[in-house]
Design goal:
alpha+beta; 4-stranded antiparallel beta sheet; about 45% helix
Length: about 290
């Protein structure tokens, strides 16, 4: 389980405001160029998913201080936009969701190996490296040797953390004597990864019980609230899906159990996403107070 998330089996992951904030900017700002959104609009939308105004304001300030958001004043209002660093993070997440997907049916048999040795006093940098490696699909083969399926470019991660002198990266294939199935079970917690997908599917499948007619901006709904509040529903959907896939390295399908739940969960995600995309976009145009970055 991630340090920044708490899992309630009945309700799903209760995420930090920053995770929801990034999902909000990914949904409504990333593809809009140099758009900025007022603090009032951010407070309104995050309030729809249970984040109070004080938490939103403090999170905006922290994200500015961390170089994730820029801010500018327009009259009496403050507007926030994405920095280049935040755009890189969100673009990577966008590719993970929509391009690479949750299932790897085309693995070519190669692995990326990354070895590192950091001083004992570098606890924070070691934690940051491990977190970034986990998102990039790596797992700990041994304490200082991590492995990921396929060819993974970690150049940006290593350079950003200023660890080039402490990291070695190799491409490899397993020898015949290596039991890949056993190695995967030893390196990754398959049960925990599968449970995330199963839980996501159980939470979101009811949203599809009564789908609206094609092209309709409103439908009878199913008690899910997706038709009444598509912008809030889509924010929860995307942030929960990112939480679900965060620790999944997209292991080769042929080395996973035949009932691996990633495929069905991804189908549910994409169906709900398709249902909410245009209604959420329309609502954003109506609700969001925006300005162009200077």
């Amino acid at each position: 389980m991630e340090n920044d998330d708490v899992l309630d089996p009945a309700e799903g992951p209760q995420q930090r405001p920053q995770s929801l904030m990034l999902a909000f900017f990914g949904n409504h700002v990333l593809e809009e160029g140099d758009l900025c959104v007022s603090s009032g609009s951010v407070i309104d939308v995050l309030g729809r998913v249970g984040v109070g105004e004080p938490a939103v304001r403090s999170t905006l300030t922290r994200m500015v201080n961390r170089g994730l958001l820029s801010r500018q004043r327009e009259g009496r209002r403050m507007y926030f936009g994405l920095t280049p660093h935040a755009r890189r993070i969100l673009e990577d997440g966008h590719a993970r969701i929509w391009t690479r997907g949750a299932v790897d049916d085309a693995w070519d048999g190669t692995w990326t190996l990354l070895g590192f040795s950091l001083p004992d006093s570098w606890k924070s940098r070691r934690h940051d490296l491990r977190s970034r490696l986990t998102w990039s699909g790596f797992g700990p083969l041994y304490s200082g040797l991590w492995i990921a399926p396929g060819e993974v470019d970690v150049t940006a991660v290593v350079e950003e953390l200023d660890l080039s002198d402490h990291v070695k990266v190799f491409r490899a294939q397993a020898a015949d004597l290596t039991d890949i199935d056993q190695m995967i079970r030893d390196t990754w917690d398959l049960e925990s990864i599968a449970a995330r997908y199963t839980s996501f599917d159980a939470r979101w499948t009811p949203h599809l019980a009564s789908e609206p007619d094609a092209g309709s901006g409103s439908g009878s709904g199913s008690g899910s609230g997706s038709d009444d509040d598509p912008i809030g529903t889509r924010l929860r959907l995307v942030s929960e899906w990112l939480w679900t896939i965060r620790t999944d390295p997209r292991l080769p399908a042929r080395h996973l159990p035949p009932d691996w739940p990633a495929g069905p969960a991804q189908e549910t995600f994409r169906r709900v996403a398709a249902r909410t995309e245009e209604p959420a976009r329309r609502m954003a145009r109506e609700l969001l107070d925006t300005a162009r970055a200077r």
